[in-house]
Amino acid sequence: MQGQLPHEKYYQLFEPLPAFLQVIAFLDRIHAYLPGWEIPKLSPGSYSKDYGFITDYFCEIMHELRRIDVLAGLRTRFELIESAKTAQGVSGRDQRAVHKAASGFLKLLHPHGKVSDEDLEEVLQLACELRQRIREQLHLMAPGEYDRVRLAVRMLPSGKVVVPTLPDANRVQKVSLPSKPSVGEVIGLAVEGDHGCILHFEMQATKGHGRIVPLGSIQRVMRESIEAAAQYIKAKHALLGITEERRDNYDVAILATFMGVPKEGPSAGISIVTGIVSALTGRPVRNDLAMTGEITIMGKVLPVGGIQAKVRAAYEAGVKEVVLPGDNMKDTGELPQYIRDAITLTPAVSIDDVLKRALLVRPCR
Q1: Cβ-Cβ contacts under 8 Å for 104 (sequence gap 6 or more)
Q2: Which of the 8 DSSP states describes residue 32?
Q3: Are 192 and 339 members of one domain?
Q4: Residues 205, 336: one domain?
Q5: Does one domain contain both 140 and 195?
Q6: 242 in the Ramachandran plot: left (φ > 0), alpha (ψ -120 to 50) or beta?
Q7: What is the pTM of this model?
Q8: Distance between CA 127 and CA 109 in Å, rounded?
């Protein structure tokens, strides 16, 4: 339906393309992204009742217009600028893309080259919008390489600045963080496809026989992480503040929410340990902190992949601190400065480092 935005399952708008086309260097060379959701569907009222050009004749006109540079005499009337004032600014590809798109519109609408200031402004705003959509997706796919630029046009000599607005610019997958620290509620980080995502775990302790019970669509590797976490807690329960009675007479259920989505990978290890310890001790987990890292039965925190994508997902969700393996700190150097300024990145080499940052001191009452 016209006016609808793409489904939120798509993190970026190029995601439906085949994998061999999702190459940054190729996508950066696309001049414009025409959003299909803004194009009305054809209906009986779409057809003209008047005379028109046959296709061959119209194509010949377009072919001849390729020889004409209608923009040449208009370039003194505007300049392309970057209104967000990022370090990268307007690239040569941005310049070419906007000029090419504007030239195409002018050949269709004003082939004689006589354009009012109002009409030129409208054409340039649309050309900027179509290229801006490309830049938005490049930023989502490779934030370290592409800043979030804001293309705009300054009309001359008036100095009026025209900045296009994209209804879909803020169309990113959002995850609501817990409203307050809660017992057994942990925010993990994972990678899905080419982008990071939030994993939301809930752990609950109930009377039982000391079992760890995974719920939902948790796959083999993550189940192995749960087993490693259970073994570590069993061996170190006293140091973790878990009484023997709680360890042996309570079961802990582990739920990774959105149960229909398969959960896989070892990077949730420290999240699982934190949630289980929280459930058995009654100590709440901070709701502004996310974590990623593999756990061993000795309590060591091992490095994992996709750190940049995970930290970006945490930033977009509003997380204030990310705990990650110490060996992964070197992977954060290429993150955009605005993300590093907004999030505290805390290295951890053992589960003790994680629990000190993630668990509040006083149990909930």
Answers
A1: none
A2: -
A3: yes
A4: yes
A5: no
A6: beta
A7: 0.60
A8: 14
Reported as a single tens digit per residue, the pLDDT across 93-103 is 999 999 999 99
pLDDT category at 123 given cuts 50, 70, 90 is: very high
- With residue 312 as reference, give the H or E element that holds it: helix 307-317
The answer to whether 119 and 105 have CB atoms below 8 angstroms apart is no
60 and 157 together in one domain: yes
CA angle 194, 197, 198 (to 5 degrees): 170
Residues 168 and 184: their CA atoms lie apart, in Å, by: 35
Q: Which of 103, 225, 267, 278 is catalytic?
A: 267
Residue 248 has pLDDT above 60, yes or no: yes
| Domain, as residue range, for 238 | 185-358
Q: Let me know whether 326 and 208 are in one domain.
A: yes
> Cβ(322)–Cβ(349) under 8 Å?
no
The pairs formed by 117-125 with CB atoms below 8 angstroms and a separation of 24 or more are 117/77, 117/155, 117/158, 120/74, 120/77, 120/78, 120/155, 121/153, 121/155, 121/160, 121/162, 124/78, 124/98, 124/153, 124/162, 125/153, 125/162, 125/164
158 is catalytic: no
- The token duo for 76 is 């003194």
Q: Which two tokens stand for residue 8?
A: 């939120």
Instruction: Exactly one of 263, 271, 278, 310 is catalytic; name it.
Output: 310
Q: Is residue 310 annotated as a catalytic residue, yes or no?
A: yes
Both tokens of residue 279? 């459930």
Point out which residues pair with 253 in neighbouring strands: 204, 213
Model pLDDT, residue 106: 94
